[in-house]
Amino acid sequence: MSIRLVTFALLVGGIGSAALPAAAVEPAPPGAKVYIIWPKSGQIITGGKFWLRMGLRNMGVAPAGIRKPGTGHHHLLIDADLPPAGEPIPNNRNHLHFGSGQTEARIELPPGRHTLQLVLGDADHVPFEPSLVSDRITVIVP
């Protein structure tokens, strides 16, 4: 299976960067929520290319490596389960890092049925406690 990011969205903390050592797990601010704005679950993605739009409520977005209370950055899980609690989110074709603080990115998926889910990570790519994850959605590429 081939999954490509069609933009420069992964430059910082992106594909090819080494995982950072685990740090103390940061607490999630009360009322924080991460969500996928677009696509919607069940969306048919003709051609497989689309703009993923990511949302975050009651927190801010900051690039990887920036330690500022109440901030984190997005990670997209494609056809993957949530990573183990307290460990850095893997960085591979099924776990895309948006370490520059992106809130949208051009994604390309191969034909088939795919699940997408966002996880918010701290400066070291470690999920917050409790984990801030979006609903898992399904998209179809004909």
TrEMBL record:
InterPro entries, A to Z: DUF4399
Domain DUF4399: 53-141
Signal sequence annotation: 1-24
Keywords recorded for this protein, A-Z: Signal
Pfam family, one: DUF4399
Name this protein carries in UniProt: DUF4399 domain-containing protein
Species this chain originates from: Benzoatithermus flavus
